[in-house]
Amino acid sequence: MMYQGFLVLLFCALSVLSQQIVSDPGVFGPSIELVHLYNDEFPSGIAVSASGRKFTNYPSNLDPNNTKYNVAELTSYDTEMPYPNAEINTPPGGQINYTTGSPVGANNQNYFINVQSVVIDAMDRLWILDAGRPSTLSGSGTLSSHGGVKLIGIDLSTNTVFTTIIFPATVAYPDSNFNDVRFDLRPSITASGQGVAYITDSSTEGRNGIVIVDLGTSLSWRHLDNAPQVHAERQSVPFIWGEAVYSIAGYGLPITRVLYGADGADGITLSADGETLYWTAVGSRYLYSVPTALLRDNSPTSELLAQASIVSHSVIGISDGLETDSNGLVYTGNFEQNAINIFDPASGMTRVFVRDPRIGWTDAMFIATDGYVYFTENQLWRTPSHFPGTERRVRPFALFRAKLPDNGTKVQLL
Ligand SMILES: *[C@@H]1O[C@H](CO)[C@@H](O)[C@H](O)[C@H]1NC(C)=O
Ligand SMILES: *[C@@H]1O[C@H](CO)[C@@H](O)[C@H](O)[C@H]1NC(C)=O
Ligand SMILES: *[C@@H]1O[C@H](CO)[C@@H](O)[C@H](O)[C@H]1NC(C)=O
Questions:
Q1: Which end of the chain has fewer beta carbons closer than 10 Å to its terminal beta carbon, N or C?
Q2: Cβ neighbourhood burial of 6 (10 Å; 0-12, 13-18, 19+)
Q3: Alpha-carbon distance 132 to 165, whole Å?
Q4: Which residues pair with 290 in a beta bridge?
Q5: Rounded to 5 degrees, what are φ and ψ at 230?
Q6: Ligand 1 centroid vs 65 CA: distance in angstroms?
Q7: Quick check: CB of 24 below 6 Å from ligand 1?
Q8: Residue 347 and residue 351: Cα distance in Å, rounded?
Q9: Could you give the C-alpha distances from 229 to 130, 225, 235, in angstroms and in order?
Q10: Which-ligand-closest: CA of 66?
């Protein structure tokens, strides 16, 4: 009996050991395809034209070594060419003006200083958003100069600039950081009939808000300045790839909690009908929106109405760039889960779209006419401006794409 009891115990122990313990599968949704490897400069945004041409920007505030080009066309699987040419990417005298008391971004209207975003609109035109605030080689930020902050339109058929919109000092403050931009070209929404652009100001110093530009008149104005919802959440700490992410605003400066000390409104996207603007702050897990009609309104009480109409769609995860497809689904980053999420405005629910261990800091997303969402993975939290303050990025950086559900494709607000 003793011997039989021993055998039963041994059998039980072995069967437990041989059983599979259920664990996180690590992947979910459609497989992601590698589209491009960035071996040279540190990338941020991505835009894909109707014919499949691809463009990326390389902000010089996030990496002061991004001095050879601010914008490039991806010419093969792993090569890039300054776009639209090398000259416009290399301002005479450099990106930074050292003749002033403390260094400031150069004021050149005709050159790229520090491009934060590239977007292709519904007319297949490339727009370049220049925040005008490069970092010095020692990693310190600069303030912008009037003329450095601008929105440049490029005709992709001729590869030439067709417009440059400069922002007045009442709209682009020296410590503004114009971060991302979305376009609505419907003639009916403005008197000038050329559409509008919406821009997030993710000012490191915390003067966050949304900027609106009438593309017909080049007039611009601000809304939602310093509303709590355009700011990061106090004391938030994101977790990426098992690491707590703290910020170090500059070399030798103290460790802070929220990313960039005060990093507010950053990712931005329009609803498929253009009537709602969504945004997130990188230092927040919440998704917010406001009716775009209230942003386009610049009458005396319009700011009261805009601030009173902000909607919280609750927690969606930590996200940088956002996108929307033709089915109305809003794509958001979810850094902490190696994922990209979908927020469905029709149900108010968030779900995971795709998960993959290669996904971490999804800096930008772009939905192209081929029915794919393209997204950059640039390891931004491993730059020296995050704890422990050392360089931990490993090249190459990557551009991926994933097929959209239910024949989703690019939204065309024309
Ligand atoms: C810039 O490049 C230099 C030379 O390769 C390197 O020593 C420095 O760490 C780089 N800086 C950043 C912020 O990557
Ligand atoms: C540099 O600053 C000086 C002094 O403000 C100004 O006159 C000059 O135009 C600036 N140059 C550039 C390229 O920003
Ligand atoms: C997607 O497109 C295919 C081919 O046109 C069509 O057969 C299918 O019904 C579409 N699916 C949805 C969900 O619209």
A1: N
A2: exposed
A3: 13
A4: 277
A5: -90, 0
A6: 6
A7: no
A8: 11
A9: 24, 10, 15
A10: 1
Token output for 217: 């008149």
The whole-angstrom separation of Cα 91 and Cα 208 is: 28
Q: How far apart are the first and last CA of the chain?
A: 84
Whether 157 lines ligand 1, by a CB cut-off of 6 Å, is no
Rg (CA), the chain: 23
Q: Which amino acid is at 222?
A: R
Nearest in space to 97 (alpha carbons), one of 111, 87, 117, 77: 111
Distance from the alpha carbon of residue 297 to the mean position of ligand 2, in angstroms: 35
In sequence order, which residues have a C-beta less than 8 Å from that of residue 392 and are 6 or more positions away? 379, 382, 383
Backbone angles phi, psi at 273, to 5 degrees: -95, 0
Which ligand 2 atom lies nearest to the CA of residue 148?
Answer: 14
What Cα–Cα distance (Å) separates residue 258 from each residue in 59, 101, 147, 281? 21, 30, 30, 10
Domains and CATH numbers, the chain: 25-407 (2.120.10.30)
Residue 154: strand pairing partners: 126, 161
pLDDT in tens, the chain (414 residues): 555 655 555 555 556 666 889 999 999 999 999 999 999 999 999 999 999 999 999 999 999 999 999 999 999 999 999 999 999 999 999 999 999 889 999 999 999 999 999 999 999 999 999 999 999 888 788 999 999 999 999 999 999 999 999 999 999 999 999 999 999 999 999 999 999 999 999 998 888 999 999 999 999 999 999 999 999 888 888 999 999 998 886 666 777 766 544 578 899 999 999 999 999 999 899 999 999 999 999 999 999 999 999 999 989 999 999 999 999 999 999 999 999 999 999 999 999 999 999 999 999 999 999 999 999 999 999 998 888 888 999 999 999 999 999 999 999 999
Strand (E) positions, 146-263?
A: 150-155, 160-166, 178-184, 196-201, 209-214, 220-223, 239-240, 243-244, 247-248, 255-256
Cα torsion 57, 59, 62, 65 to 10°: value is: 100
The pTM assigned to this predicted structure is 0.94
Q: Of ligand 1's atoms, which has the minimum distance to the CA of residue 139? A: 13
3-state secondary structure of 367: strand
